Amino acid sequence: xxxxxxxxxxxxxxxxxxxxxxxxxxxxxxxxxxxxxxxxxxxxxxxxxxxxxxxxxxxxxxxxxxxxxxxxxxxxxxxxxxxxxxxxxxxxxxxxxxxxxxxxxxxxxxxxxxxxxxxxxxxxxxxxxxxxxxxxxxxxxxxxxxxxxxxxxxxxxxxxxxxxxxxxxxxxxxxxxxxxxxxxxxxxxxxxxxxxxxxxxxxxxxxxxxxxxxxxxxxxxxxxxxxxxxxxxxxxxxxxxxxxxxxxxxxxxxxxxxxxxxxxxxxxxxxxxxxxxxxxxxxxxxxxxxxxxxxxxxxxxxxxxxxxxxxxxxxxxxxxxxxxxxxxxxxxxxxxxxxxxxxxxxxxxxxxxxxxxxxxxxxxxxxxxxxxxxxxxxxxxxxxxxxxxxxxxxxxxxxxxxxxxxxxxxxxxxxxxxxxxxxxxxxxxxxxxxxxxxxxxxxxxxxxxxxxxxxxxxxxxxxxxxxxxxxxxxxxxxxxxxxxxxxxxxxxxxxxxxxxxxxxxxxxxxxxxxxxxxxxxxxxxxxxxxxxxxxxxxxxxxxxxxxxxxxxxxxxxxxxxxxxxxxxxxxxxxxxxxxxxxxxxxxxxxxxxxxxxxxxxxxxxxxxxxxxxxxxxxxxxxxxxxxxxxxxxxxxxxxxxxxxxxxxxxxxxxxxxxxxxxxxx
Length: 665
Fold this sequence. Notes:
By secondary structure, the protein is α+β, with helices and mostly antiparallel strands. It has helices at residues 2-7, 10-78, 84-93, 132-140, 231-236, 274-277, 279-325, 339-375, 394-400, 408-412, 417-433, 479-493, 503-520, 535-560, 584-599, 628-644; strands at 103-107, 113-117, 144-145, 149-150, 157-166, 172-181, 201-206, 211-213, 242-247, 253-261, 266-273, 379-384, 389-392, 437-444, 450-461, 468-477, 524-532, 566-571, 574-580, 602-605, 608-611, 613-620, 649-652. It is built from 16 helices and 23 strands.
């Protein structure tokens, strides 16, 4: 009963309102503190993780570089000799290298192991020709770190750090490799010192997604590990480095920071669950909330007394305003010494007189406007000063396919979700500023047909005082015009036969990728190729058969590359592929898969089957390139070189600053 009597009075409601305001204010302040604190905590943790990731990446890079340098010095000592006894003698003399390597092996130019230390039965004579690290060394002639493997004797995860043996003419003469244990070599000793709370951790993986270091040992060198489960890690595997917030392996959201170990093609990642990062802040906010609640309860008696004093003259004002609203009085006549209340009463009387005049004018204008809008063949609407649409003419109802009694909240949901927020913000801005509302947006009718609408609304202002009454607008259906514009944009940059990019569209994407490379050093690779043995298809089967072959090859190439890559038919049987955020090694593997896939495509004519092969040139953007045409010319030259090698091959063309063969040109 007590609570009911309190809430039945203005004083009680004001007291409750003040308490609610205090609680809302507390909630807003604490909410703002939470948001600001969360941002600061996140930025502080991100900065720490970014610093730690860079330190780890630098230390691992130094570890790898030192091992490369040690093997290169050993290569200078061994020279070009393949005598097993002499090589064994020299390897034993350099026994100190075993501090960095678990074992050292030497192979000849054909990939056969000719010496090792410590000696393991069966290792000398082993053929490594088809192993990935030997192919990479022979192809690039640069130091290389292999994919992880499990040692036969130690049953431990290992990698092979290797350098090529080059003769005085720069020809490939074999390789020298050092076997490095991922557990005991000290490569990741920095990771053991990382302190990211009780749940944060660091990990290292290869660019192919194989885990090299992780607190969960079961994930190391485990083929079942799926890097795409962590979207930011999947992005880092393509060469990106930086930090952000995203999903972790266990499904939680966490802070993540990535750095690249370019010399080994590895990715260093640091992970901290968001809940742990915010744990100290949440405890602090919780304590503040209870302190605020206690203070509000203690203030209630004081607020009650103050309201009792203030509301005594307000009760009379409330009564008289109610009588004016009921038509029992024409105005307020308040007998009080409080100047503020006198001003309120005077202002109320003036506003009431003006309101009566406006109501009369408004009724006249509404009658005129209703007749105009109902007769208009164009879609038109009227909205009040709160932004609510109060009227839509029959033409607009027909365009939108809605009923006159349909609630505004219901048909607003039919505005395309991508356009809804922007349209609402611009609508409220026009109401506040008096500017015209001009907007194009998508509307989905109840029959699922999507329309493009152009809306032009103008604020209606009072002639006296400049106050806004609302908006009057016109709606046009521009669906056909938008569809024609979209088709024209697509046709301008795409090949009509294959649906791939044409030369114009390809050049624009090359220019954008090269601009990103100059700005952020994001690596991008480029493939150029044409079709070997394509002319007989056109000559013997006609252009229709040739067009069919081109369409099939376009489908195969588009299927083999990544969704982020750009495939183009530049004219005739010439094709290009732009691989953004792609290293040269990854590009070579993609080129090989394209060559293999296209070789399996065929067309038939009069009982004869026709196939083609690819001569692919591969290169990447370089900091010495003045524009993307330099890289384009380099890839084209590599394609011609592939044809000169007998076709059906892939040739990687490095920039001259990186190509050892450029020294002999």
